[in-house]
Automatic annotation (TrEMBL):
Keywords: 4Fe-4S, Iron, Iron-sulfur, Metal-binding, Molybdenum, Oxidoreductase
Biased composition, class Basic and acidic residues, residue ranges: 1-11
Family in the record: Belongs to the prokaryotic molybdopterin-containing oxidoreductase family.
Protein name listed in UniProt: Oxidoreductase alpha (Molybdopterin) subunit
Organism: Actinacidiphila alni
A GO term, aspect molecular function: formate dehydrogenase (NAD+) activity
Ranges of residues in domain Molybdopterin oxidoreductase: 120-518
Length: 772
């Protein structure tokens, strides 16, 4: 059997397993913070840098998109934010000498972990056709290489411009402006793999594809439902907010196949009581749902509320502000309890406990993340969350609303700035009016479609503003083959990753400044801006000297790229934008709604909040002018006999494809990532015991199979039939065509697999002699 899944860890991957933890943070979190940050950047630099994280005069944490409150702590960051900062502010460097010593063929055999550990890239690097070594090139030459390849295309639609979610508002605005002046809407982004399903569902039902709650709403609400999210690892500062909500009287319900430690008990590292004591129990009710069962759960809850009648329903709100209630009501009342049990694994009595909490609550917030968005029926699932909230009038009043918790620190802002392959006409009209060129109107390629276009040869140049496209995308083997067919691949990056090693015929790495670094231009010191998960926009100023004198900021890279590619054809005064970012913000203020007076407003400490019609005035800019109930048929994954459903998720020691370490502390896993979490009876049914090794084989409906080899079996409290393993090692198993309806997001939380026992670990998972 060909064992071709890439990027095995040549480092020792020998998992050691202990029982999962029941609480998160506390002293161990501080210990890990200091250790990780100190290793990468020394204790003094670590301390000075970390004290600037998320302060009003500091920089926005490059970790997650959770908002900061108005009253900031001295240490307004978390263990995982500190790891993200340390990764960027590291003192290790990847210089031209490094590339001379390591041919691409060598780098392609290294793990993502090893690549990331090498440090910050210091100079623009070029891989010529047929060459095996990247060589340093001057910036001007790098831009002329891109210009040559773009100019040689038959159509601008043969180029793809990807964005990851750390890019600032200013850089994102310029980047989409460049792509559109060039003539394409091919602007896929990490959102396509992330919260696209939320955007699709919310735009259709509420008219705005963003969350409707502010931080304060969490402190005013009576009930918070956290579904499909693991904040203890991925949004640790959210736990402080949940603790505060709890102290103000809120109840918390979590809906998850896994009992995630952070939601059980939280020991706040910012308070003495949290450090010393046993912490706060956050969870009032844990519904251990089967993968993909959430739509059925919320539909069933809707049925119970309808049957309860007036006590559960806000009839005035429904009559005045919603559309489609009768159809929804008929569908919900027809809910079949046997089907609900099959889909959710929950009994009616469990759902009635949730109903009781809902009936006691005057206001409800629902938070969610990838557990809801990465399923085939993710969009109808999130619409069902909206149905539930509409029944109780829980949109557009204090303490109530939808709270999709975003991932990357500026992923929401990038979309606001026009990074979108399907831009609304009004946005393009505003762009046309401001700049005087006609932007393309045809929709562009999202992530999955871009991979197909590269595979089929209809896209030839791939340009990435950040991210690690090859490792983050589904169907790794297909994606890598597609990438290798490109004429040119270009990555604007801070650190080395696998996407630099799986390249087109020619490749460029353009090294850039990170959030933590000072950005000086001809017009003086500059700052950038970001938008958090709750629509708050604020400034971000780095304080460290750049990792290398050769780095350019992301806005500067786009400006120089545009000048090299478009030259005299351009009607945009590109050079001004590089000198002084205020000139970019002036343009944004005239193109993007909610940004008027941008330069003044963003200079106020703490920034400003973007308008949100449903939240602010209960007005709904939808097709019907009302909030829409929807009544789609209930769906859930059907898994053939003897097969399991696999979710691919994050460990505590990673930031997406950036691996910080090999532990997943809260889940009790140490020193290894090739593990598969299984219900003990599922393991036994496959002839496997805890500690055995198995290959994971994904079975797709077209008969194709995909394999990831050598995973250690871990007995885990997950529902029967539901397995879990880490991303990105398992991306090789996610079929490219397995996506969510409407949003086209890879369904990476529901992959049908079978287990094949192996007598040994995968070659890469064995302790290997590594040259370092
Ligand atoms: N430290 C750290 N922080 C991060 C990231 C990181 O990698 N590391 N990534 C950032 C990004 S880009 C994002 S998008 C977010 C991701 O944040 P999360 O969405 O929390 O990330 P995942 O690890 O994918 O966790 C998915 C959670 O949903 C649950 N789940 C899976 N399937 C289902 C389901 O069908 N139903 C329900 N109810 N639950 C389900 C899983 O058990 C798990 O608890 O975090 C951001 N923050
Ligand atoms: N199977 C599976 N696949 C998934 C997911 C899953 O849950 N399961 N989650 C999906 C999700 S939610 C997301 S968001 C995507 C993430 O997809 P991406 O955003 O593409 O991936 P990241 O790993 O976040 O990108 C890390 C790289 O970004 C670069 N970088 C870091 N900081 C900066 C910066 O300031 N500027 C620039 N230019 N570059 C920088 C570094 O070179 C680093 O190696 O993955 C998706 N893929
Ligand atoms: Mo994400």
């Amino acid at each position: 059997m060909a064992k071709k899944s890439p990027a095995h860890d040549p480092v020792q991957d020998a998992p050691h397993v202990t029982p999962p933890k029941h609480s998160a943070a506390g002293l161990p979190a501080i210990g890990h913070t200091v250790k990780v940050a100190g290793q990468q950047m020394g204790v003094r630099r670590a301390t000075l840098t970390l004290l600037k994280v998320n302060q009003k005069d500091g920089f926005d944490c490059p970790g997650c998109a959770w908002p900061e409150g108005d009253k900031r702590h001295v240490a307004e960051f978390c263990e995982n934010g500190a790891k993200a900062v340390a990764e960027e502010a590291t003192l290790r460097r990847v210089t031209p000498d490094f590339f001379a010593a390591h041919p691409v063929s060598d780098l392609a055999r290294r793990s993502g972990y090893w690549l990331g550990q090498q440090g910050r890239i210091t100079q623009p690097m070029y891989l010529a056709e047929g060459a095996d070594h990247y060589e340093a090139v001057p910036w001007e030459r790098a831009f002329s290489i891109v210009a040559d390849e773009l100019t040689a295309l038959d159509s601008p639609d043969e180029a793809v411009f990807y964005t990851s979610g750390r890019t600032s508002n200013e850089a994102a605005f310029l980047y989409q402006l460049f792509a559109r002046e060039l003539g394409t809407n091919n602007l896929p982004d990490c959102s396509n793999m992330c919260h696209e399903s939320s955007g699709s569902a919310l735009t259709e039902t509420l008219g705005v594809g963003k969350g409707s709650v502010l931080l304060d709403d969490l402190y005013k609400t009576d009930l918070i439902i956290v579904a499909g999210q693991n904040p203890g690892t991925n949004h640790p500062r959210m736990l402080s907010a949940l603790e505060k909500a709890k102290q103000a009287g809120a109840k918390i319900v979590t809906v998850n196949p896994l009992p995630e430690a952070g939601l059980e008990r939280f020991r706040n590292p910012q308070t003495a009581a949290g450090l010393a004591g046993t912490g706060t129990v956050l969870n009032d009710l844990f519904l251990q749902i089967r993968l993909g069962g959430d739509q059925a759960l919320f539909r069933a809850l809707g049925r119970l509320m309808l049957e309860t009648g007036d006590r559960a329903l806000d009839r005035d709100f429904i009559a005045e502000h919603t559309h489609g209630f009768a159809e929804y009501e008929a569908a919900a009342l027809a809910t079949d309890w046997d089907e609900v049990e099959r889909a959710t694994g929950l009994r009616r009595a469990d759902i009635e406990k949730l109903l009781a909490l809902v009936l006691d609550a005057k206001s409800v917030v629902v938070c969610w993340a990838m557990g809801l968005t990465q399923h085939k029926h993710a969009v109808p699932t999130i619409r069902e969350v909206v149905n539930f909230l509409l029944l109780g009038g829980n949109i557009g009043r204090p303490g109530a609303g939808v709270c999709p918790v975003r991932g990357h620190s500026n992923v929401q802002g990038d979309r606001t700035m026009g990074i979108f392959e399907r831009p609304p006409a009004a946005f393009l009209d505003a762009l046309e009016k401001e700049f005087g060129f006609a932007p393309p109107r045809e929709h562009g390629l999202d992530v999955v479609r871009a991979i197909r276009a590269l595979r089929d040869g209809t896209a030839k140049v791939f340009f990435a503003m950040g991210g690690n496209f090859v490792s983050a995308s589904p169907d790794t083997d297909v994606t890598e083959a597609a990438m290798r067919k490109a004429r040119l691949t270009v990555h604007v990056s801070t650190k080395l990753n696998r996407s630099h090693t799986v390249t087109g015929a020619r490749a460029l790495i353009l090294p850039t400044l990170g959030r933590t670094e000072k950005d000086r231009q001809a017009g003086g010191p500059q700052f950038v801006t970001v938008e958090d998960s709750m629509g708050m926009v604020h400034a971000s100023r780095g304080g460290l000297d750049p990792a290398s004198p050769h780095l350019l900021s992301e806005p500067a890279i786009v400006v120089r790229l545009a000048r090299a590619v478009l030259g005299d054809r351009s009607v945009v005064p590109w050079a001004d934008f590089e000198r002084d970012y205020d000139t970019i913000r002036d343009r944004i203020s005239r193109v993007v709604p909610g940004f008027d007076d941008f330069n003044a407003k963003v200079r106020r400490p703490g920034g400003f909040t973007l308008p949100h019609a449903p939240r602010d005035s209960r007005s709904f800019p939808t097709a019907t002018g009302k909030a829409n109930f929807t009544a789609a048929a209930v769906e859930y994954p059907h898994v053939p006999e003897g097969r399991l459903l696999l979710q691919t998720l994050r460990s505590h020691d990673q930031y997406n494809t950036t691996i910080y370490g090999l532990d997943d502390r809260y889940r009790g896993i140490k020193n290894g990532r090739r593990v598969v979490l299984l219900h003990p009876e599922d393991a036994a049914a496959n002839g496997l015991a805890d500690g055995d090794y198995a290959d994971l084989v994904s079975e797709w409906k077209d008969g194709t199979e995909r394999r990831a080899d050598g995973f250690r079996v871990v007995h885990y409290p997950t529902p029967r039939g539901c397995a879990a393993a880490y991303y990105p090692e398992t991306n090789v198993l996610v079929p490219l065509d397995h996506t969510a309806d409407t949003s086209n997001t890879p369904a990476s939380k529901s992959v049908v697999i079978r287990l094949e026992r192996t007598s040994e670990q995968a070659p890469g998972a064995r302790p290997a002699p590594t040259v370092r």
